[in-house]
Amino acid sequence: MKRQVVCLAGEPWSAIPTRTQQLMSRMKDADVLYFEPPAPRGSDLWKRKGRKLRPGLIAYTLPPTLTRDPRKKLLARYDATRTAKFLQSKLEKHRFVEPVLWCASPGGAEYLDDIAYRGLVYDCYRDWPDYPESWESELASTADVIFAASPDLLRHVVPCNSNVSLLPFGCNYPMFAKDRLPRPHALRDMEGPIFGFVGTLWPDLDLTPLIHLASSRPDCSIVVAGRDAGCYLLPELLDEPNVRYVGQVETVDLPDYLGAFHVCTFLLRREHLYDDVIPTRMFEYLSSGKPIVAMLRPDQVEDFPDVVYGAHTAAEFSLLCSRALEETGTYARDRRREYGRAAAWSERAEDVNRILESIGMFN
After folding, report:
1. For residue 136, what pLDDT band results from cuts at 50, 70 and 90?
2. What is the pTM of this model?
3. Nearest to 195 by CA among 206, 203, 187, 204
4. pLDDT tens for residues 223-272?
5. Could you give the residue ranges of the DSSP H alpha helices within the chain?
6. From CA 255, how far away is CA 176, in angstroms rounded?
7. Rounded Cα distance, 260 and 283, in Å
8. Would you state the pLDDT for residue 68?
9. What pLDDT, on the 0 to 100 scale, is given for residue 70?
């Protein structure tokens, strides 16, 4: 019988693939039912037919919930019972019998007693402050295997379960490991070296290093690409004459932008200074082979000290950007691409499939 996986996802299916989407799309020889988080109240998304996203992969949206507060026992139990019936109806419709249950958020803990499964996986790839701690504790202690996206997250779940494997984020390596890409139209008039940043401009994103760089290197250009989510330092950065903000860039065009950069830059969010998860963006930078200058967290052990220039202050950041421009030879570029290749989502998924096979979840 074909392998079967039921995924209780932490985010809706997105046009920009999430970690869970990347892994579910690469489940080896498996049919996958992907359940998005509960629909907003008043929405009929959960009543719609399943969406066939890829061969063997169908997505549904869970029904709305009335509460996440476990102290409201009657409402919480009503939510859990209704959702469990919904899940069971979809499993029966698609003839899923004791599938592997993949939980990508602590919310899955509510349904462990209502679904018959052959094995339980918890993918711990972030903190979940909006869920009760007891839910994650129950999920982690019950899981047959846990995948943790960073060393800190691994240490977080080890007290509940010793069967934990480190599984960092990944990237679409073939997409970014290309040379001689066309320069985006938005950058075609730019001359001289380009320092580039790509990422969501969160309110707490610390743009101070780029502001310092722009003022200290007026002979260079700084390109910022990403959705503005209310970053309070963005207006100050845009006051610098050598800064160009191009807005959000389509995923398919990102390799062209990285190809136009002479140096890629990586910044920190002030509210996430102690988050040690290496994001997909860093692996995309590495896959491009371009020099990378990154701001480091306090007391951070550098992840790629041989190929990433790590700075602790805005002044040091500017100095290292100038040094990165002077990089010669192909050793560092090739080494970065080796890191990127090792982080390809196909490699991450192969690790998952191998582990699930080794513990008997996948026969």
Report:
1. very high
2. 0.92
3. 187
4. 999 999 999 999 999 999 999 999 999 999 999 999 999 999 999 999 88
5. 19-24, 73-93, 133-142, 151-157, 173-176, 208-216, 234-238, 254-260, 280-288, 314-325, 331-342, 345-358
6. 5
7. 17
8. 64
9. 65
Evaluated on CA atoms 226, 228, 229, 230, the torsion sign reads positive
Buried b (16+ CB within 10 A) or exposed e, 171-198: bbbeebbeeeeeebebbeebeebbbbbb
CA distance 11 to 250: 20
Q: 10 Å Cβ neighbour count for 237?
A: 20
Pairing of strands 51-54, 57-61: antiparallel
**221 CA to centre of own chain:** 28
CA angle 91–53–93, rounded 5-degree value: 20
Residues 352, 24 contacting (CB under 8 angstroms): no
Query: Which residue is associated with the tokens 């026969």?
Result: 363
Predicted pLDDT of residue 232 = 95
Place of tokens 């930078």: 285
**pLDDT band at residue 47, thresholds of 50, 70 and 90?**
confident
